[in-house]
Amino acid sequence: MDDARWHAAAESLVRYGRRMNPDGLAVGPAGNLSVRLDDVVAITPSQIRYDEVTPESICFVTLDGEHVGGEGRVSSETPMHLSVYRTTTAAAVVHTHSPRAVAASTVVDELPAVHYSILRAGGGPTIRVAPYERFGSDELARAAVAGLEGRTAVLLQNHGAITYGRDLAEAYERAQLVEWLADVHLAASGFGAPRILTDEELGQVASESARRRYGAAAGTTR
Question: Domain named Class II aldolase/adducin N-terminal: which ranges (predicted)?
Fold first, then answer.
């Protein structure tokens, strides 16, 4: 056990967790964040408001779901987080209940490319909508993983969104971007059918981003 790494992970989860409500990504204790430390995952606890979460209340679980540290109650969405870690190279996962992402998930089968920044948010030309499953269920975990195939973000129907990244900062930024994209799509739909960027146009964006070394244009970390 590396106590220094565990404490640093707990502190980062507390810091980003306290942004969830002000940034409009969750209400009250809804949603959760996690980071992976080798074969252990640190995740925010269940039913504690983010402004009351402390490093000591962060939960530590193995990839098999065994609670190995932390004073808090393990989140019901831990199986979904663990499934993402087991099937991707994610180092951090953010699960939100942001209002526009939820709203979009109830009316579209996928969030289309209303803006080229979708390449950074989802890793593909669209952000899929995983079919509705009850929170905390194995079915939800499987649906989320299927929706993330080749992507770094997915909307969860009538529920929220989940994103991952190479670190917590990247995963959190993607969660914010998903909410912004959902907002743009819903706003545009109020005026009519939004114009969607073509695969060719998105390909040009990816090529130019690579040329300018803006990072992985497609946003994938798999």
Answer: 11-186
User: Is 77 in the active site?
Assistant: yes
- Rounded to two decimals, the pTM is 0.93
Q: How far is CA 173 from CA 10, 39, 92, 117, 142, in A?
A: 19, 24, 11, 12, 24
- Rounded Cα gap, residues 66 and 59, in angstroms: 10
**Which residues does the chain have with pLDDT short of 50?**
216-222
Cα(13)–Cα(37) distance, integer angstroms: 13
Give me 4's structure tokens.
Answer: 């220094």
Tell me which of 77, 133, 170, 179 is the catalytic residue. 77
pLDDT tens digits along 93-126:
999 999 999 999 999 999 999 999 999 987 789 9
